[in-house]
Design goal:
By secondary structure, the chain is an alpha/beta fold. The chain has a single domain, classed as Alpha-Beta Complex (Spore Coat Polysaccharide Biosynthesis Protein SpsA, Chain A), CATH 3.90.550.10. It is built from eleven helices and twelve strands. The strands form three sheets. It has an eight-stranded mixed beta sheet with strand order 5-6-4-1-7-11-8-12. Strands 2-3 form a two-stranded antiparallel sheet. A hairpin with a 4-residue loop joins strand 2 and strand 3. The longest helix is centred in the first third of the chain and has 12 residues.
């Protein structure tokens, strides 16, 4: 088991910053979406930053030590979660920051693989341990987090049944599908699969499964693959799935699927905000920090 978690929160949220297509959206939410990092948008009846709800689930799942990967100008996180570079105490959680810089000649960071690399590179004291990793704009359940934290191996991910999502069919069909072997070890990620490919991707139980970036890794095993991750020639970013696949091709049993059927509220664009708002209202009629 591990109590360590890396949360990626350094993205520039380009899709969230696009103009709203729904004129009826709460203008306060629109303003926050335009100005704040997604994890800091205040939602729910308690009007807390979205990240608070996620951290609360993580605390109840047993996580205690966090690296929050932020951008160079992400002062909002420091203002809210603690101004020290390391070991801020927030409701009993130990929160430290890793900064993902924008390289010279670029307008945005190198991507998700680089974000995680920066966390591990800036915290070498985490070497020789396992840790978990997730996005800051997805609401992962306590069940999913606990399953991952308590998984006895050093590498795994929550392999979600895509029939468990409360998303539109169009959105579900755009999700990357995971391909596993007969023992449940990762083989490949299939981006934007065609219907014929979906049939090939079905698991033995008939399900089609996807990753929502909720992973458990071995620091020592994964570090060199993050460091050496190539740049995607189309998107010009160093992407986490590329690093993961390079690792499993060298180490076929490095990543084990943990099957789960559950919804994962997601904040990609402004149109997601009222859906997440309603979900949190239902989940937390009154918000209290768990043990």
């Amino acid at each position: 088991m591990t109590e360590k978690m890396v949360i990626l929160a350094a993205g520039i949220s380009s899709r969230m910053k696009k103009p709203a297509t729904d004129e009826n959206l709460d203008q306060n939410l629109v303003k926050q979406a335009n100005e704040a990092s997604k994890g800091l948008i205040r939602l729910g009846k308690a009007q807390l930053p979205f990240l608070d709800y996620l951290l609360n689930n993580m605390k109840q799942a047993g996580f205690r030590e966090f690296i929050l990967v932020i951008g160079e100008n992400s002062g909002g996180f420091r203002a809210y979660y603690g101004t020290a570079d390391q070991h801020n105490d927030y409701h009993g959680l130990d929160i430290s920051y890793a900064v993902q810089s924008v390289p010279p000649g670029r307008t945005k960071p190198w991507g998700t693989a680089d974000a995680l690399f920066q966390a591990l590179d800036q915290y070498p004291e985490w070497a020789h341990s396992t840790f978990c990793m997730c996005n800051s704009d997805n609401y992962y359940s306590k069940q999913a987090l606990k399953l991952l934290r308590e998984f006895p191996g050093s590498g795994a991910w929550i392999n979600y049944d895509r029939d468990g999502f409360n998303f539109s069919k169009e959105r579900v069909s755009s999700l990357s599908v995971t391909i596993v072997d007969d023992e449940g070890y990762l083989i490949d990620f299939m981006e934007k699969p065609k219907p014929a490919d979906i049939e090939k991707a079905r698991n033995a139980d008939g399900t089609v499964r996807v990753s929502f970036n909720l992973f458990k890794f071995s620091y020592d095993l994964f570090y060199p693959y993050l460091r050496d991750c190539p740049v995607n020639p189309v998107r010009l970013e160093k992407e986490l799935p590329t690093a993961v696949l390079n690792m499993v091709r060298d180490h076929p049993h490095a990543m084990k699927a943990i099957p789960l059927k559950a919804h994962v509220p997601d904040m990609t664009s402004k149109s997601d905000l009222p859906l997440v708002q309603n979900y949190l209202d239902e989940q937390f009629p009154e918000f209290t920090w768990g043990a």
